[in-house]
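ingest -> validate -> predict -> emit
validate: passed (alphabet ok, no gaps, 259 aa)
predict: started
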Amino acid sequence: MLTSLQNPLIKHIRSLHRAKGRREAGLFLIEGTHLIEAACLVDRAIVAACCTEVWQSAYPNLWEQVASRAQRVEVVSAEVLRAIATTTEPDGVVATLERISTPAPKFTHLGLVLETIQDPGNLGTMIRTVAAAGAEGLLLSPDSVDLDHPKVVRASAGAWFQVPMATHADLPTELRHYQQQGFQLVATLPTAKDSFWDIDLQRPTLLLLGNEGAGLSPALTTIADRAIRIPIHPGVESLNVAIAAALILYEAKRQREKK
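emit:
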């Protein structure tokens, strides 16, 4: 059992809490039973996995799956597990995976495009919502929070391993490419004339949502085909971006299921 916080593996895993550490190592963290199950379900290779004796006893079959996929497995003390986890009350298991560059999603009917999203909880929630609403994936601007930030992965509740997603260095150029294929680009703007109930979302559509405070940049709003707003009761300034995404994605789902 590893009990020292000075163990090289433990220090290495703790470095992955930071974006710089993840970039330099080419690795990222997943933690918790549900995410470990999700990684095994898609047969994702694991670099290293650490668990407590209590967790190992509670999930012997899952630990066996982890051990068969991992380059290294270790049982660690509860104190060490708390140190390498990013949550205050970890449930007993942490693993590291390789950062794999995935190709951008290939949209055919509905996708989400996100610009300068900063809150990892928001991004993780939107990944989860994309999966739940049946959209085809998401594109993210490079100045957004890392897709494999630990809080993003955790907030996705396992959908992280299901949803095609990628960061794209030049969103305007990529979006024009989809316009040429017949997609409508729909920007979300608080000043838009039409509400999200007033637009045909049965067409091939990419939904554009922007930064939590500043919204979409002019570079994206100027190329959009339509702009929509979400009606808000007087006196309320705005909606959380993840809530806004959920409302529009589910309106698209509602319209498509009426066909």
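The first strand starts at residue 27 and ends at 31.
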